[in-house]
Design brief:
- It contains eight helices and 16 strands.
- With 353 residues, it is an alpha/beta fold.
- The chain folds into four domains: 11-54, no CATH class; 59-160, Immunoglobulin-like (Sandwich), CATH 2.60.40; 168-180 and 229-348; 186-227, no CATH class.
- The longest helix is centred in the N-terminal third of the chain and has 23 residues, at 32-54.
- The chain starts with a strand and ends in a 5-residue tail after the last strand.
């Protein structure tokens, strides 16, 4: 908890102004009445000031892990405990997520008491943090002075990119993929591509018996050709060549939202999705269900544009270039030469208004 700060409220400013005027009148005229008025006005201000110096609030806040999307409204239950020796009337909110007329007003929180307040909140932007900061304000007892303090609480908060509408070209490609027949047989026209580790939930009929026995673990035949290959999402965070760290493309946020929305659509269609992010780390994910998507969405929540760097042949060798590919130009680089390696590719961008 940070050191509390004292501030004048509008009521306190008006009271001090009146004290100054009546004190000036008493000094100039020497009358007894202005002196009485000065004392009557100054007394509650002094009492309020002394009370806030002596009865300092000691507030603890506890909150659970939260995963949401940027822009979405939610109710945040917060446990608030008063460790002070006196009751306090409090205004409680989280500045980074508070909405208009949000927060909670506690008329009287007794000493040692603990309550749960449900705060209306909204994640204003994507991101991840391990520390939540809540603002506590009290004007008790007379409202002349405002005591403000900030309470820190260790709790993970993940705000994924906001969801948005996909463009017509992307939706048409998704509908086209839905119309293509998918071979449910064993081999039937499929070509052998590679051997890889078996993942739970995959078709056990494709297990390579001899190689599995020799290695002591299940190995799967990766067949390509007859079956539709997995869908590829590439999020390109590279800036255009010559653009440094100071350049910020305003299209970064909407295009990260498009990438997250596209992944949701593909998972609803029970597609297997390979996600690649082109940045300094060149990370990759294979996603079969929503639970597998959390790590990728967390990467999008913290993604930032990076300086240009060319892709190597090794990067292309690690993916199937015959896959249906969606390329998200989030960093601003056009990547025409890289996209030319994919015969079936859709560039994902926001619709022009």
């Amino acid at each position: 908890m940070e050191q509390p700060r004292l501030e004048l409220t509008p009521r306190g400013r008006v009271t001090l102004l009146l004290v100054h005027l009546t004190a000036s009148a008493a000094y100039i005229t020497g009358d007894f009445a202005p002196k009485i008025a000065t004392a009557a006005l100054a007394a509650p201000f002094l009492v309020d000031w002394i009370y806030k110096l002596v009865a300092r609030p000691r507030i603890e806040a506890r909150v659970g892990k939260r995963r949401t999307r940027a822009g979405d409204l939610f109710l945040e239950p917060v446990r608030i405990r008063n460790h002070a020796q006196a009751a306090h009337a409090l205004e409680f909110c989280e500045p980074t997520t508070s909405v208009r007329k949000g927060g909670a007003y506690l008329e009287a929180l007794p000493a040692g008491a603990e309550i749960t307040a449900n705060l209306p909140a909204r994640a204003r932007r994507r991101g991840i943090t391990d520390v939540r900061v809540f603002e506590v304000v009290t004007t008790h007892p007379f409202g002349m002075l405002r005591r403000r303090l900030f309470v820190r609480c260790e709790a993970e908060f993940i705000a994924e990119p906001a969801r948005t509408e996909l463009g017509d070209e992307v939706l048409e490609q998704l509908r086209s993929d839905d119309r293509e027949p998918i071979d449910q047989g064993y081999v039937t026209g499929n070509e052998f591509f590679a051997l890889r580790e078996y993942h739970p939930g995959e078709d056990a009929r494709h297990v390579h018996a001899q190689r599995s026995a020799s290695l002591g673990t299940l190995v799967l035949r990766d067949l390509r050709g007859g079956d539709n290959p997995e869908t590829l999402i590439v999020v390109d965070l590279r800036r255009a060549p010559g653009r440094g760290y100071r350049f910020s493309d305003p299209r970064l946020e909407p295009r990260l939202s498009l990438a997250a929305t596209l992944l949701d659509e593909l998972l609803e269609r029970h597609s297997r999705v390979r996600c690649r992010i082109i940045d300094d780390s060149m990370r990759s994910w294979t996603i079969d269900a929503q639970i597998d998507a959390d790590s990728f969405l967390e990467a999008l929540a913290t993604a930032q544009a990076v300086p240009f760097r060319p892709l190597t042949g090794e990067w292309f060798d690690s993916i199937d270039e015959r896959a249906t590919a969606f390329w998200v130009q989030a960093g601003g680089y056009d990547a025409k030469s890289d996209r030319a390696r994919f015969p079936d590719i859709v560039v994902v961008h926001e619709e022009e208004s």
